[in-house]
Design goal:
It is built from five helices and eleven strands; from the N terminus they run ββαβαβαββαβαββββ. It is an alpha/beta fold. It has a single domain, classed as Rossmann fold (3-Layer(aba) Sandwich), CATH 3.40.50. Helix 1 packs parallel to helix 2. The radius of gyration is 16 Å and the shape is globular.
Length: 212
Amino acid sequence: MMRIDYIKGTALKLIQSERIYKMTSDTYHLAKFIKVRKHDRVLEVGCNHGVIIMVASQYTDRECLGIDINQDALELAKQNVLLNEIKNVRFECMDFKHLNQLNFDLVVCNPPYYKHLNKNDDQAKLDVSLNLEDLAKQAFTVLKDKGRCSIILGAERMGEAIKIFADHRFALKRIQMIHHSLQHPASSVCMEFNKLGKVHCKVEAPIVNTGV
């Protein structure tokens, strides 16, 4: 069963399916967190039904690319692009590690939250097909010098992510914590890394998660 929703804060319509992971608050927060410049070439890794790449496309005059290993999700993403009459987004079904296109200005990804522990667990939430090491390594390859990589993760993995991206010559440039309330510890964190950038980080105002 499919239904049409709107992406909060935009005029973009969104077809969602019971068979494909629906838009979550993390998707929405990462879409708001990214900063897209007028001539940015944007890549979304694991684009699912296309929310973030569609939002990004509204701010750039360059072509945007969404990739995913789930062909069903990509078919839904293509429907969403057609529904919104977006001309500068295309999709490819592939593993990020096999992408051979270069010179992106921004890579954005909502990677799996949890380390792979059990092969029977839900792979969409685990780092089976894409771990942070793979993400940082391949992002360095496909980005221009000074290009950015923006991600959202569970807050408990923030230190791990900073170390891994630093090992691959990225500097943390912006960070934003997400809380269920200001009385709760952060549940998630948005981070923007800069390829070959200098160490200088802006801490954005925290988000109190009210859902989507």
